[in-house]
Give the backbone structure.
Amino acid sequence: MSMPPRPVNRAAVERAVQDLIAALGLDPAEEPELEATPARVADLYAEIFSGLDSAALPEIARFPSSGDGLVVVRDLPFHSLCVHHFVPFFGRAHVAWLPGRSLMGISGAARIVDHYARRPQLQERMTRQIADHIERLLEPRGVAVVLEARHLCMEMRGIRRYGRVETRVVRGELAAPPFRDSLELGRGARR
């Protein structure tokens, strides 16, 4: 059972940002650029957290399956916010599936990735959510999702080091030979 959409309380977001600005010792009277910041942040959060609305699932074109070859969509850029710090993480998604009963338009993979990126997120959970969605939608014989991302919570604070995090979900026939050993989604990609 899906949760009903949670409406964004814009006024509460604006008040919270005003409180944050004051708590940081900033004064909009001295820095007039801050005057509209609460409204801008409320607009930003409404957009980048639009994936929280369970009623706003992406519309995906589906077609009867006409073949059994592997479908791979690579290098789909995504941006999300780390649920721990509300700091961006971003990278590329690689999505593959072995058709079962149906196919989806190739833009469908990008729409699904975008939907799950638009919420406070963990990269590991996002990887699973994308795979789960494709399995529910297409009933494929196999699915694989690989996310490669940079996390600014690691680069801007704490250890302050660059690193790419890779998460993988591989299920069904793609988890078994011959695919298991040949599936190189994301490996060796250069940035």
About this structure: The CA atoms of residues 86 and 120 lie 7 Å apart. The longest strand covers residues 71-82. The radius of gyration is 20 Å.
